Every structure is written in structure tokens, then in C-alpha cells.
Protein 1
Amino acid sequence: MSDKRIGFLSFGHWQPIPGSQVRTGRDALVQSVELAVAAEEIGLDGAYVRVHHFARQLASPFPLLAAMAVRTRRIEVGTGVIDMRYENPLYMAEEAAATDLLSDGRLQLGVSRGSPETALRGSEAFGYVPPEGSTDADLARQKTALFLAAVRGERLVDADPRMAGGMPGKLAVLPQSPGLAERIWWGAGTRATGEWAARQGMNLMSSTLLSEDTGVPFDELQADQIARYRAAWADAGWERTPRVSVSRSVMPITSDLDRQYFGERSGEDQVGLLEGVRARFGKSYVGEPDQLAEELAKDAAVREADTLLLTVPNMLGVEYNARLLETVARYVAPAIGWVHPDDRG
């Protein structure tokens, strides 16, 4: 299928340690913009960033996404994912619409309940405490529902009659960006949350790890999640075709330096405990480009998804990562059905 899209996903780490090309918060931000520019030149379809709080990683996505957008013209800019527990849904709707308008409709926003983090009850420190009897996941879903309503242009807040000529009524959050509501994705870590996302009308961002383990390989578990998501989408009666992304660590070995960095990576799925739940993580793909092309073409979830996000070792710097992405685009991506934008019909 020639509509396969490929992007990069940066965790935006920065550390002042030996070997790091990303030593400060400024380095992480500026280099994220530069990598988006380089990825667009290579022909990739997307530039995505992770969002983490209380960590030496990227935290506030909208200024960064806006900067990426104004420096590029074609590539999608997005998140994978924003932890909704930390967000004010109406303010976030304003920021998202403004960023989308600046990008001319290229924003792809991944949201979710977030992942394990360094802070103890970090979102509560931001002022968001789940109501009595509800969980973090409940809070994230409630906020997402309000965010979606705002982005869809629903009138949510009572007007002040004194300011509205004596007329009662409700106001929508402004600005609005047409089509943005169809470019919101839910980061789903289980098959059930994938089905829930379909019922909400959100695209599916299948997590880098699934917090369940049925004994089948990770790619097959993910492919099953995608199939269930699409079935739930069809049952919900949505008109449009949804999008589905998976992310993979793909490290082509073409030089001694690559071998030094990645020569010993595991080529197997990893199973472990995450917050007390048995979880399955996908393997890293490491090897010669032709070998990677063959392996990735057999990955069941990569085959099923329309979008593949390549997780990049961002602390190795823009030049190294641009070369890595170019190698994947040239020698690996065609094997999974990706076509350079210049050659698409």
C-alpha cells in the first residue's frame, strides 16, 4: 500500500554527560526543530515528540511544535503522547488550534493517560486530583472528552448576558482549526483501550509497550489490537477511515560507529513487570539495512499500521540521526510499502 507514512519519534533526552550532543534543555528544543527540518528534506512524513514532566526530556509541546511547523512546510508535526492528567483541556484546545493554524493543518496530536514517571503524583502537583472514587485513567479520559468537545467547536461555557447584549447562550473555545478533531490520536496500551479509542472517534497510536501479555510475539499482539480497534471503529459507524501508528526502534548498521553504539542490542521481545502488570515490549531492529528491510516487512503490526514512527537516539545529535533516518528511508522503508513523497501519485 503506497499510503504508508513514516516519521520519527524523539524522546527529547538531554544530559550533560560524555558522548551526549544534547547537553541542555535549549539543545533538546533547538535540535528537535532541526531534526524536523532534516526529516522533511529526506522525505519523511512526520516529526513527533514524547512529552514527559519532571525529567530531562521535552515537556511543553506546543511552543516546540509551533516552531517545527513554521520551519517546515509539508511534514506532519505531532506528539506521542501528551499525558492528559496534567492538562487544562480548554487551554490545551486553544494551544492546539493555534499550533494547527500556524502549521496549516499538519498537527497530529497523540494524547493518553501517560506512562510511568519520575514524580510521585506529579499531575496532582499541577493541581489536578482525581475526584473521590475515580482513577488517574478516569481523570485522563474525562479531560480528553472535554478537550475533544472544545476542539470540535461545541459551545461549552455560559455567556455573560451583560457582555452579550442581554442574550443568554453558550460560547465555544476559540480559535477553531477545521479538521483538527480528526487528527487526535489515543495512545493505547491494551486491546481494550484501543477499542475505547475507536468508540471516541480518535486515531490509534499503539503503545511502544502493551501492558498485557498473551504469550504471542509483540507484533502479533499489536496486530490483534489494531484489528479489534478497526472492528470497533466500524461498529461505531464513523464515516472516515481512521489512522493507526506503531513505533519501532530501527538501527541500521552501516559504519563502525553504528556498530559501536548499537551492535549488541537485543533482537527479541522483552517481557517484564510494569507497575505490577505483566507487559510486553517490542524488540529493537538492529542490523545491515537489507536484513532490516526483510525483518520489518514480516512485522505483523508494521504491516497493519498506516504510520510507522522510528524512535531516534536523539542524544547522538541531529547529524547522526538525520543519517540514520536517511538510511532507513532509502534502504529499509520501501520494503514496507513506503514511497518517497515526490514519487506518490
Note: The chain has a mean pLDDT of 93.
Protein 2
Amino acid sequence: MRMLLAILTLAFTSFSVSSATAQQTIRFPSADGRTTLTGYLFLPNAANGTQRPAVVLMHGRAGAYSSLAKGQFTAETLSKRHRAWGEMLAQAGYIALLVDGFGPRGYPQGFPRGSYEDRPAELNEVTVRPRDAYGALAYLRTRRDVAPNNIALLGWSNGGSATLAALAVDDALTSPAERQFRLGVALYPACGLKGQFENGYRPYAPVSVFIGDADEEVSSKRCAALVEQSRAAGGRISIQVYPGATHSFDDPGARRQSNPANADATTDATNRILQILAQGLQAR
């Protein structure tokens, strides 16, 4: 396991992943009952029919695609970060499903920094995007190559907020029967969650939060307070705050990775997340 972690971490932090894109592009319904979503599957090498654990991936405010997509929103134009994570998880033996929740609703290019108050209600990360996550979960549970009780949810930024909301015990939009994610990972989420959990946040499965204290878009202090209050109420949630790391610290672009704090945070978070997945997605 240690050797595998070292290999995968080196591949990710040096961004030397293969140029291959998602191996399958799929369509499946959101649990909102209205939207047909686009998804990109990253698959491990064939293993003679063995069922694999899976990870649902939720993009952030900028959407699933590269800023250089030039109107071509396909597997070939996914952002470097999403491709890196998808490839890394597949190499580690997981089936990874990146969900494009913005494109099918008419916003494939996502939104710029500072646009939070202007984003349409149909993209709400607390009331809408969690339904996309559950649509992805339902789809994966139909696949013969997926271990149906071993599926995690991982999101970045706005998708990290959606991850927190999706795993909330007090989410009135999901039934206990739907709540089948084994664990959640939220990278630099906005922990205000539109004020929906002001009386306390408690997840139904373990959740791990990763954020930098120099984040220029969301507040690490707010996330730390959310985690502290949740843990006091019995929530299975943890937080890792990286000194000097910014928003999108794991973005493979030179601008982010030229910050040593971001590079260090990427290495540490990657190691920790691989360990969390390995420990949490065990066969029942």
C-alpha cells in the first residue's frame, strides 16, 4: 500500500498522468427528476468481472472543462485537475465518475470567481447538486463492475459544498434508503451552505474536509467552526487545514503549483485521501 501511494502521489503531483481522457462518456438521470446529466467514467484495467469500489466526483464553480475548451465540451476538454484525479483513482483500482452538472443545465463553462450571488437557482449546491450526486450513485449501483455498497463522494469547492449537503442527516430531499454513500471528501468547500444547517451539521457517513488557510474564495475558519460544532454533536467529520495553501491548491496549473504551500498540500491531501478511500471502501 505504501508503495502504491508513493507511485500515485508522484504521478499526480508531477502531473505526469497519461494524456488519455475519460474512457466512457455516459448519460444518466439526476435524482431531481428533470435533468439528464453527462458523466465521464475512468475505469481501472479489466479484472475478470471483479466488482470495484467507486468514487463520484463533483466539479467546482468553474465546471468540468478546461478554460481552453473553446466551446467543445467533451471528454477531450476536461480540465487537467479532473483528468488527473480520474486517472489516479482508476490506477488505484476505483471506478471514478465525474459528473457534469452545469453543462446539461446550460452553463458548461461554469462561473468566474466572485459570481456566487449571481448564479442561477437551478445550480444550487445545497438543494440541487446533491440530487445529481444521488443520480450518479443510483447509476453506479446498476453497474455489474461496481461494488454497490462501496461508493464514495468527492467534490471540489462548490462541489465540495454539494458533498457536505448530500451527506447531511438533516437533508430533507433524500430518504434514508437513498443515503448509501460510504464516505465523503470535500476539498475547499464553502461551509456556509446557504444557512441550511445553522442548527448544526451532522453527516450520516464519515466526511473529511481539506482546505488552505490562505484560501481567497472560501473561509477555512468557517469550515473549522462547522466541523467543531458537528463533532460536538457526534458528527464523524474531520478537517485538515494547510498553512499558506490557497483555493484550488491541487490545480495542476503552474500558477497554483508554483506556490510551495499548494504543492505540499497537494501531496499531503492526495496521500490522505487515498488512505481514506482504501480504509473506508471496504467490502461489507
Note: Helices lie at 2-13, 80-91, 129-140, 158-166, 220-232, 254-257, 260-280.
